[in-house]
Amino acid sequence: MKKSGGQKTKKSTITGTTSDVSDVTTTSSTQQQQSGSGNIRGGRLNIRQNFHEESERAINEQINMCITASYMYESMKFYFYREDVALKGFYKLFKTCENYKFNKQAETLTKYLQKRGGRVRLVEVRPLGNDEWGTGLQACEKVLELEKKIHESFLGLNELAVDKGDFHLQYFVQDKFLHKQIKWIHKLACHITNLRRVGPGLGEYVYDKHLQGKTIVADIFHSVL
User: Fold this and answer.
1) pTM for the full model?
2) Same domain flag for 79 and 133
3) Is 11 within the bounds of a domain?
4) 48 lies in some domain
5) Shared domain check, 103 and 163
6) Per-residue b/e over 182-217, b at no fewer than 16 CB within 10 Å?
7) 3-state secondary structure string, the chain?
């Protein structure tokens, strides 16, 4: 009987130990879940390194400037698509710019800002105040003026990066924006020079065909057939 009682006592002790371990495991699991949920809900990992608040503010300003420029390209694009303007070559030109330039720039800047631990702060886009862009030459001249302002803004961002000792931001701005901006400004200047050369009216019409990748002779031959 004593032996049996001893076995019962031993079994009870083992059961109690197993219960204690189970309690500890459950408590640990609960704490981990609470800790994890706390990190998800309110915790923010600090990944900022050598990234000044002024740089974050300047990048946000650049993002909003690119978005505003994208709106301007959008307005120009559909202006030249109108039936009373009907210059589809310029429509194609500004459509390509709007799709692949400022939208892409804004997205690239946004991703970079978040990689550095910053936060995007978008503002309300101001009305352009104009939906009439005149001739193709006048529109290109307006775009050139805008591009030079944006390039100047990128130069300011680059200087700020140098001043703050942020070499990563400096390389990013030079590699992703400054070189491409210079190429596009030169291309715009070439369009303006050629448009001034051919003149308004028929000259602008022929140049619009050139922007479409077409020629007057090809159009006449196609209409005859």
Assistant:
1) 0.72
2) yes
3) yes
4) no
5) yes
6) eebbeebeebbeebeeeeeeeebeebbbebbeeeee
7) CHHHHHHHHHHHHHHHHHHHHHHHHHHHHHHHHHHHHHHHHCCCCCCCCCCCHHHHHHHHHHHHHHHHHHHHHHHHHHHCCCCCCCCHHHHHHHHHHHHHHHHHHHHHHHHHHHHCCCCCCCCCCCCCCCCCCCCHHHHHHHHHHHHHHHHHHHHHHHHHHHHCCCHHHHHHHHHHHHHHHHHHHHHHHHHHHHHHHHCCCHHHHHHHHHHHCCCHHHHHHHHHC
Q: Give pLDDT tens digits along the chain (225 positions).
A: 444 444 444 444 444 544 443 444 444 444 444 444 444 455 666 778 889 999 999 999 999 999 888 888 889 999 999 999 999 999 999 888 765 578 889 999 999 999 999 999 988 887 777 789 999 999 999 999 999 999 999 999 999 999 999 999 999 999 999 988 899 899 999 999 999 999 999 999 999 999 998 765 445 434 434
Domains contained in the chain, number? 2
- In whole angstroms, what is the distance from residue 13 CA to residue 77 CA? 83
State the helix-helix crossing angle for 136-163 and 179-198, rounded to 10 degrees: 160
